[in-house]
Amino acid sequence: MVRGAAGDAKVRAARRPELRLPALERYDGGGLEPDGDYDGLEFDGADLAGQDGGGARFMDCALRGCALDEARLSRARVLDSVLSGVRGVGTDLARATLRDVELTDARLGGTQLHGASLERVVVRGGKIDFLNLRAAVLKDVVFEGCVLVEPDFGGARLERVEFADCTLKGVDLSGAVLKDVDLRRASSLEIARGVDRLSGAVISTGQLLDLAPFLAAELGIAVEG
């Protein structure tokens, strides 16, 4: 059942990552390698566009201001790491694992995260267009102060996921399964598909009124007068 902002509405809060990066070594710019192992490195302004790091592991790393256009990072594991100011179009992170990660002020478009696993991840600030999270698993994920344009959560599983001060445009929830998902603090909520999948989410009274026409259409209710 979709719950409004009543006082008895309870939703478990997401657990946030607790990052304490060690002293980092500067990335030497030698290029990513498939199944590479990157530990304790700082990628500062690195141009990783078009590079193939499929299956690579990034542990205790910081990527700051990096270009990720068409970077191939499918099945990559990004652990205990910070990504700040990264930018790119068509970054491939399909079936990747992101755990204990902070992503801040990103400017991304068409990022592929379908089939990915996100756990204890914070996405703060920035703008991400056409984010593909189909069939992904999100657990303890916080979207904070960011703009998501047409994010696709089709068939995804969301548990303890929060949207705070976010603008959500054209969200696709088709086939998604939600549990303890808190949408009450989203500054703008526009659901294009899958409004029937909101069971397991908590929304505000104002959001319920905004979504009423879509809910009525989904239930086949004619509203007149």
From TrEMBL:
Family annotation (PANTHER family): BTB_POZ DOMAIN-CONTAINING PROTEIN KCTD9
> What is the protein's given name?
Pentapeptide repeat-containing protein
Query: Entry's InterPro entries?
Result: 5peptide_repeat, Pentapeptide-BTB/POZ_domain
Q: Which SUPFAM superfamilies match?
A: Pentapeptide repeat-like
One Pfam family assigned to this protein is Pentapeptide
